[in-house]
Amino acid sequence: MGKPDTADLEGRIIAHLGTRVRIKTAQGVVEVKPPRKSAGWAVGDIAVIRGGMGVEIRDRKNELNRVGGNGEKQTLAANVDLVVAVTACGEAFKLGLIDRFCVTAFRMGAGFSIALNKMDVEGADRQLMEARAYETLGVPVYPVSARTGEGMEKLAESLSGKICALLGHSGVGKTSILNRLAPGLDRAVGEVYGKSDQGRHTTTMSLMVELPCGGAIIDSPGLRQFNPVDIEPRDVAEFFPGIRDFSGKCKFRDCVHMTEPGCSVRAALADGRLDAQRYASYTRLLESIRTNAAKKGWE
Question: How far apart are CA 211 and CA 122, in angstroms?
Answer without folding.
Answer: 31
